[in-house]
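Researcher: Structure for this, please.
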Amino acid sequence: MVDLRLQVVAAVMGIIMALATAAGGSKPSGAFVFDEATVDAIQLGFRNGTLTSAALVQFYLDQIARLNPLLRAVIEVNPDALAQAARADAERSRGASGGALHGVPVLLKDNIATRDRLNTTAGSLALLGSVVPRDAGVVARLRAAGAVILGKANPSEWSNFRPVESGWSARGGQTLNPYVLSATPCGSSAGPGVAAAANMAAVTLGSETDGSILCPSSANSVVGIKPTVGLTSRSGVIPITPRQDTIGPMCRTVSDAVHVLDAIVGYDKLDAEATGAASKYIPRGGYTQFLRVDGLKGKRIGVPTVFFQGYDQVQLAVYEKHLNTMRKHGATVIKDLDIATNFTDLYDKETLLMNAEFKLSINAYLSDLLHSPVRSLSDIIAFNNKHPVEERLKDFGQPDIIAAEKTNGIGARERAAIRRLKEISANGLEKLMKEHRLDAIVAPNSDASSVLAVGGYPGIAVPAGYDKEGVCHTLKLLDFRM
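Model: Predicted structure, token format:
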């Protein structure tokens, strides 16, 4: 089987630079413009003296105080954020500032561990007060880059492994879409997506197992990068399955997302197998070098028919406009492609494996905590049963968690499911990419997320337009190297 340890490199970066333009920022002189400020604008403000990290953090704290009672995107703010910002300002005054994220506030999904005064709970009351042994691998990299940890964002509880309303958790309540309050914010990284869209953080970090970055990025009109599994460490992140879990940025612009990606990729001895395999594909000099408007020249972009079924003519016309933009920037667009494989059993096989792998993974995570009210999946089930009102058992139940508890590891059925999913990937996207010599494929919204998930492939969602109700739709891109 072909190894698809992927780089988000020139083809996709060229596409998204052609489709999306960075917005906001400061001018060389005058007052800094906080709304929609990009990472590049923030760093310019730091350099020309129109901005401090402390002022930036205070702006986002004020935004959270003003907007979060309605949007419920932030589950907890970091009591040490202003102190971290002051430290970054002091470092900068001594000429010791670092890279693109130095002094920049980052909001983390509440399944990403921080060894500080913040909780890490996946939105569940069962983990409130638990103590993690260390920062998650991606958080350690953010701190090394000089970023300020602003707080935790509201997820769908247990990253939607417990099937709740998208964006709801017992700790954080119901996250709302900032564009259309009655529309779904999608999940499970709803909080990061909404917070980025509503200017409640400079940049945010989410996680994905199947659609949890791509879908809320699509729903909330932000850029979301789902990296190849293993490109970013999963250590210290409350897990679902090691075959599919990945951590990635959710930001207002392409360039911001790439700056964050550059900061968080790399080898981690606590996630050695996955990061060891993927880290050798990280390009020397990082990913920002591929943010070029001419990156599409000579690239071959595939459009599989299956992902565009069910859309009306108005929506299809919008997507066609973006395909024409790619052509104008030098790409060859190959339409009406057929992924000649049977996907009908993908969901069943994926679910079968997730149930077994979630039990193994969550029990391992809980056993590593220094303190926790729960120590096993069965403890979580018991906690929810003891707190039916707070955990809304009547509304959502906990069927997937109960199904996972009934599993007994990776047996013959699970191994057969793994073989079948590898077959789907090999005979599907991998075969399509090779036969048509494609650099990337394009799909609407998060429609291809399950296909990407089971293969460990990456995806990037970029805003493509809005429907008549104001709901955002996106174009999703997949690029991998055979």
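Researcher: Any notable elements?
Model: The first strand starts at residue 74 and ends at 77. The chain has 16 helices and 13 strands.
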